[in-house]
Amino acid sequence: MRISLFITCYNDTLFPGTGKAVVRVLERLGHSIEFRPEQTCCGQMHWNTGYIREALPIIQHFVNVYRDAEVVCIPSSSCVAMIREHYRKAAIESHDTRFVADVESLLPRVYEFSELLVKKFGVEDVGATFPHKVTYHASCHSLRSLQLGDIPMRLLRQVREIDLVDLPRPDQCCGFGGTFAIKNADVSSAMLADKVCDVRDTGAEVCTAVDNSCLMHLYGSLHRQHFPVRTMHLAEILASEAKTGADR
Amino acid sequence: MEPARQAILERIRSAHALRSATGRHDSGASYDAISRAYQRAGSLQNTERVELFEHRLKEYDAGVHSASTEKIADAVKEILANRGRRNMVAPSGLPAAWLPEGFTFTLGDGITANDLDHFDGVLTGCTLAIALTGSIVLQSGAGQGPRRLSLIPDYHLCVVLAEQIVETVSEAFDRLGPTATLPTTFISGPSATADIEMTRIKGVHGPRFLDVLIVQDKNRIG
Amino acid sequence: MNTEKNFRGQRHPDFPVAAKELLQDVQLRQNVRHATDVITAKRAHVVDEMQDWQTLRDAGSAVRQNALDHLDRYLTQFEEACIRAGGQVHWAIDAAEANRIAIELVQAHAAKEVIKIKSMTTEEIGLNDALAQVGIHAHETDLAELIIQLGKDKPSHIVAPALHKNRQQVRAIFQREMELPELGDRPEDLTEAARVFLREKFLRIPVAISGANFLVAETGGVCIVESEGNGRMCLTLPRVLIAIAGIEKVIPKFRDLEVFLQTLPRSATGERMNPYNSLWTGVYPGDGPQEFHVILLDNGRSEILGDAEARQTLKCIRCGACQNACPVYRQTGGHAYGSVYAGPIGAILTPQLDRFRQSASLPYASSLCGACYEVCPVKINIPEVLIHLRGQIVREEQETFAGKIGPWNVGMQIAASLFASGDRLALAQYLGRIGQKPFVASSGFIEHLPFQLGGWTQTRDLAPLPAQSFRQWWAQREKTAENSTHTKAGGQS
Q1: In B, residues 111-170, which contact C (CB 8 Å cutoff)?
Q2: Per-residue pLDDT tens over the stretch C285-303
Q3: Cα-based distances in Å from A141 to A148, A185, B140, B183
Q4: ipTM
């Protein structure tokens, strides 16, 4: 199976290590990966902030790029949620029947990274070793839109030498919310402060998630406060092998 | 009629038309096609249903008692004695056999709210009860009185016959259908509030004490 | 239509500004946190035990939708049945008209005082102030509303309006206003004080004003759901009862209550059933008020109905579960919203009722986490409506010159053009790596950003753009792979 990687605009720009890790894990499992350089963004930032008109060409571009892809793998739960929850509506509003048909046909081929491994491939043990204390933050989109349930945890439980600790109040938003973090910086920061306390109290060395946007937000505060906790995308932990640690 | 009526109805109709015109007429199911896949009918045996009702009542901090049909008056006597309530009010139409000796039962239908405030408590029957939610349902009429009767006195003793207990809320509405327009009160436990720190505290304006006497004849249950 | 006056006169600061101030109030945040923690736990307990919860939500949503689909028919059906049962029905286009009708009805009985059941609708129209202006005092009888009224405060929650006050604060208000210096601070002491304080009023005052939870089209019946018995007092003791209800409160049939009387209490207060539900139809001889009026209030609702996307807002049955679940509300409490309806439902309802006049910041007061939608007993997709309203706000902004040249619009237009092709994004990444240099501190992190982006670095550091983007890495890898194929050597990065 040929997997087309949609790295997402912010992973491409800010977290290339996550993309490398995704490639390493999938190749280790024997899949071949392609990367279409025309890809840009899913349109989420524009859409969620109310720039609907501006989001439409971005959405159209995504659909054009991946129209013929066998499977699209996306290491970001919020981008997958954007595609699943809003593309249909965007297409319908465009009154372009081809666009609508393309979206309908593409949607079942779009997978979030952990979902692809567990739901599509039926794999939980990807042969990773990660000798660290780790806590998992469930992003809101992974939890409520994608309904990933315990899929990421099932993958983490199979990692050798990992010490998994539960993060309390797993259903509480970390306060990122895209432009919310800027438009409502104070409330976002208050939500973040609670989440950072919870993360710190677990005593974990690493906080992981299926969304680098939450992690960027969390790490921003952890770093500012000099808390010795790293953040790593789930793919980076799953890519780690004995005696090699994935680095950000 | 007032012009507002016409204006509002016109606005509603043009809003409907607007949605149709934009091709986004998101109308849902017609009324009869609404899916009601929730549990309408109960599944418990008689004994289990009564037990569930008792359990729910206790969770509301209501007093729960039981008696057979012949022993209702004895049970009422014991309950009232334990509560220290003597000067009771009762609606018309309550079976005389329920009233024990040694207590005053004043017919309450015509008594004003002000005067009701001076009684120790009220004894009523009910229309039905719901096991799942621990609710008793009273409707204006014989044995249950006007609504103020079970409201003003600080103590309410309600007699519930086992066959009046349904399991689900839907079953209750099936039974209430024919008398839907009567003044109706669902009572679930004593008056309470959760307005201070979201903690349920018993007793504000309605009766602060609620006892429920469940009447069942063991030989008839099964 | 003049809805501006409907929203209580004074201008309220935008949400981020109001929130910033409230976030400094440690006591308030503790109270809100405690209350919402308690209620969400109770709700979860009684919802989890219901195996048919999701199907109840589905049915509730469908019934409410059906009611809105045929609102004109159901309203006239309700009106007819209510009148047949001895009730009187009035229609009010806006708050001013509803207040005027209510005042005339009260004055017709020469009453100088009325007793009131908690009603968000009467808060919405500012009824108490309108009554006060003509010398009529409205006594709030719900405990929380009494706390708010005596404390000269504002409600902060749909179901528990005084949730932001703890017992010590309530005691202080009661001690002062009821002149009870010895009053204790156990909740039992406080409720006893309220009982004594209000009983005299229940027994004396001949006119009551209520809201309504449901209007039943089929029977003309009205349903009110409450806990304390103050509702029952107001509904049964006075000679005259006036119920003010939004036009969306109508449901088709009596049996539909079997759905809402299950979902509402479990969602609202985390109880299997709240202590009292009252149902009555018109006037009943010998039981309850012998004069009964319903005022059907539009006040912007019919306009919402025309918006295919947003009209689901009107399905709301005012349980407040979205407020308790909302991580934003849990931080700020309700006052930050500057609206009678706070939390997620307020963030979508208020801007529609006042056409964004004072509430354009509310649809942005959400991280779109989806907790509100998850708990909504009638399945209002609040995040979807929030985004829809944001879209309206943006379009309106873009029509003004200031909005067009504002930082948000300019930034979004630039970003959109960069996302038009992979090459453009690559170029932007290249420029970003150069452009960020002045902002990278000695720590190697970005600690201060200019303009709107400063909100980010207020509490967070930002790692700079790495030297190589993923697409560059991939291109390099492809090249290496190509070369090694040419030289027939294995290995990859």
Answers
A1: 113-114, 117, 130, 132-135, 140, 146-148, 151, 169-170
A2: 999 999 999 999 999 999 9
A3: 9, 20, 51, 47
A4: 0.96
